[in-house]
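A protein record pairs a chain with a discrete description of its three-dimensional fold. The following entry can be read in just this way.
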Amino acid sequence: MSETLAGVADIATAFGSATGISRDLRPDDSLTKDLGIDSIASIEMMGLLESRFGVNLIDNPRIVGTETVLQLVDLINDLQTGRVA
């Protein structure tokens, strides 16, 4: 079975769905400072990403230290490939 790994475009899609704002994202964009994601949008975005990639983000303790788009991509991919629980 081939896994679909997350990329910046996937985060942009979830960001757009959660906030109603469509924009290009950079890997080094801060989720809170650059994108202005508040707690409600964050939960909605994480839920969308959980559904899309079959991973648990909201209850994962590593999500607390996730500050950038690239860190979120890496976390999703690590969870998918079993590199982190």
